[in-house]
């Protein structure tokens, strides 16, 4: 049986592919083979970067919290550990928003964290 090259399904697929590749440069939008490869690669990058975006935002939030903590004389790791001991259930996104937009509330959190800092170990101070 002969392979269909210009049937209804084939032309519809090519039309959808061209629509998906609008805005690409030169043959990447016109030539079917290059357009197909470009569309597949774009989908792979989109899938990967949807996950990567979450990591990048978490890094940004941690960076902002750390900067705000350092300005108040505290390290990020000790701040987070003290908040966990104080049973404060704020995620890093909310803490970063407070650090940037509401410094007074963040000062209160730092004060609360200082109250719940673990006492230094006796063996560490004698060494």
Total count of domains: 2
Order of helices and strands: HHHHHHH
| Dominant shape | rod-shaped
Radius of gyration, Cα only, in angstroms? 27 Å
The CATH class of the largest domain turns out to be Mainly Alpha
- Which structural class is indicated by helix and strand composition? mainly alpha
Total helix count? 7
Termini gap: 86 Å
Largest sheet: none
Instruction: Note poorly predicted spans.
Output: none
* CATH architectural label of the largest domain: Orthogonal Bundle
Mean pLDDT: 92
Q: Give the CATH superfamily of the largest domain.
A: Ribosomal protein L20, C-terminal domain
What is the β-strand count? 0
CATH topology of the largest domain: c-terminal domain of poly(a) binding protein
Helical residue percent? over 70%
Q: Beta-strand percentage?
A: under 5%
What does this structure look like?
- The protein is mainly alpha-helical and 127 residues long.
- It has helices at 8-20, 27-30, 32-71, 76-85, 92-101, 103-115, 122-126.
- The chain has 2 domains: 8-52, no CATH class; 54-118, c-terminal domain of poly(a) binding protein (Orthogonal Bundle).
- The mean pLDDT is 92.
Which helices and strands, and how do they pair?
Layout: H1 8-20, H2 27-30, H3 32-71, H4 76-85, H5 92-101, H6 103-115, H7 122-126
